[in-house]
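Hi,

Apologies if this is the wrong queue. I'm a grad student, and the batch job for NAD(P)H-dependent oxidoreductase from Acetivibrio mesophilus produced an output file that my downstream script rejects. I'm not sure whether the problem is my script or the file. Here is the sequence I used:
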Amino acid sequence: MKKIKILAIVGSLRKESYNRQLALEAKEIIGDRVDFTILDYQDVPLMNEDIEYPAPDAVRRVREEVKSADGVWFFTPEYNHFFSGVLKNLIDWLSRPISDKEPQVLAGKPAAISGISLGMSGTGLAQDHLVTLISFLDMKVMNVPRLTIPSAMQYFDNQGKLTLEAIHPQLEKQANAFVNFIQAK
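Support response: The file is valid. Your script probably expects a header line. Output copied below for reference.
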């Protein structure tokens, strides 16, 4: 049986973002059961139809990575009750048809969503907005379980490092559910 490929998309470009760290924890928890990759998309330009055809190299590269994935796991921050602008920009590029003969790469892809934030709402509102968008784009969203982690400051150790062992059971539950969700599709 072919190894499942999960592509993680982190909604923050910051190197030490909490959501990048959460994605790395997910990668560690999921282990060798799947091929788990974090998408690097910091070189993707702002969406601009003037440069859409032919698409810039960075856009072609991320489209191919999404196309080859069996599922996409979003790790989103929450900025002003919404997901980030960089994530919206990436999704805008991914939502466009590759050509008049080849549709956009998100349609039919299984998707999971997690997020951690400093605020009290976790990333629940951002996740709700993200579900609306990616459902419209025909992604198959795993609605349960979703992981929203509020008050990230409680997970810092004395050296100021984010430690996420306390949420491992919830993250492992979501990881297992997502693998099963992908296999069922």
